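Collaborator request, handled under Task 6.
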Amino acid sequence: MKSSNMFLHTHPYEPFLFEDASKLIVGTLPPPRFTTGDLKEGDVDFCYGSRDGQLWPILDRIFGLNLDFETTEKAIRQRMDFLKERKIGICDIVQSAERSKIDASDLGMENIVLRDMFTYIQQCPKVDTLLFTGGNSKNGPEYFFRKYLKEQGFILEPVSNEVPRVHKFVLPCTNLDISSKTPVKLKDNKERIIKTVSLTAPSGAANRAVGSLKLYKKMKDENPEFNTIDFRVLQYKEFF
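Structure tokens returned to the collaborator:
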């Protein structure tokens, strides 16, 4: 139940899933205005569509997409077509949260309800990689996924501690339903090893963290015009 004087921040979009998807982008919640429908000029009414976000500008640069950045059906279709062509789905992990202050801060989320990720992943039998749009800092995508795995009795195993960090986990053939705590048989009836990649968050708020990375400093020293967006483009290109 929603607490008094709190804004209920619900995810406005269902997961973007399809059978051929091999990777899933996993974030938290879009800014509250996407829940209320009070979009700004330059927003796209789709996942990661905030005009202040950097995911689509980064992908636009990597793949030369010539995307429109406007509140139109064409802009939505461009993104859907790209995702299907590249076999990339989207399944943010947070279904809803409450906020005392209406902003997009991950730390401001309270009384968080997570999506049942195993069930969604099982709808895409070819998925072998989750791309987190952020790391293990509090209320980030990796942070919530670790919490979700713990509730299910699983852990993330480290593969690489270099930025972006890579982990893996075993997707079971049965799922523990969070509400009833009873095992539920899953669709493809076999275990799968899934890799996770904790990308540097595609937001302006993460620029300070990028600036403190040794690799970024080295590249900046070699090319003073190199910036935090350039750094993300190089990082994301490897995994998208």
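The cover message to the collaborator said: "Residues 176-181 have pLDDT under 50 and may be disordered. Residues 73-86 form the longest helix (14 residues). Please let us know whether this matches your experimental observations."
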